[in-house]
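Predict the holo structure. Ligand: zinc ion.
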Amino acid sequence: MELIKKLGTKISESGYLQSYGIFLCFVCNKEVIKQLQHGKAAKSCGCNKNKGENNPMWGKNQTEEARKKISFANEGRKRTEEQKQKQSVRMSGDKNSMFNIHLFGENNPNW
Ligand SMILES: [Zn+2]
């Protein structure tokens, strides 16, 4: 990002000297306060973080191995009744990707 104005130096809680400045974010055109070293390196203020093509996984598919790891990590995870209820509501009716899809008879892939 582009540095507009230096704000000066502060001592952080951990005792380090940190220089701050006002940066202009090219993505949202907002002025944001960042540490000098971070602001210069960052392409945006964080507004476009992990969205669309800025997501590190954009355009990539999970490898089979990664899928297995995720599946393994999620195995045995218990959901609470509340979570089940919420998911039930979220996935019901026209919000369900299978809504209005009837795979009977010839339409069934296993026909
Ligand atoms: Zn921004």
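The pocket of zinc ion is lined by residues 25, 27-28, 30, 44-45, 47 (CB under 6 Å). Strands lie at 2-11, 17-24, 31-35.
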